[in-house]
Known about the structure:
With 210 residues, the protein is an alpha/beta fold. The protein has six helices and 13 strands.
Amino acid sequence: MGKVHVLDHPLLQHKLSILRDKNTGVKEFREAVGEIAALMCYEATRDLPTHEVEIETPITTAKFKVLAGKKLAIVPILRAGLGMVDSMIALMPSAKIGHIGMFRDPETHKAVKYYCKMPPDISERQVFVVDPMLATGGTVIAAIDVLKNEYGCKNITLMNIIAAPEGLKAVTEAHPDIDIYVTAVDDCLNENAYIVPGLGDCGDRIFGTK
Ligand code: URA
């Protein structure tokens, strides 16, 4: 059974407030997204397995922990998820990256996959799905459906900077097995499915497209 982890560390909350401020410019916004993703990654990888190896320090030889070499993958949901990738690769340099792009069909309102490229051995990897904003949950649910049903992924962790209660409920109901890491659960969605108070359109603010 998965768990929802709300990360209330002061460093994260401070950086999140920078993101929320409408006067924060593209450069500072991008940097803060990266820093938040790194701090979230630190928590989301807390349970990675380690094993002991013998290491010779300048003083003596003793056994110390190193990562057990579990295979990892980061899957950003296009486009805003890309903003979280670089700082996570810095912490997990051997992680492979898969990309998934979804759009909302204007007639059926269903999330439709328009791009998907995964590492060939993705089913054997611990997958970190990243998308800064969890709004209705439709896109994330569909992306995780693809990873599970088309690629056979079994170990999936979701990282969202801000979640709406509606989105969290929908994802936990659809995929009760996954762990979800967020830095805030906001109040609600507005009539345009933006998170309130939120931070606006995260993709536009990362890429400067508005
Ligand atoms: N996506 C965004 O970028 N912002 C929201 O508030 C909701 C979805």
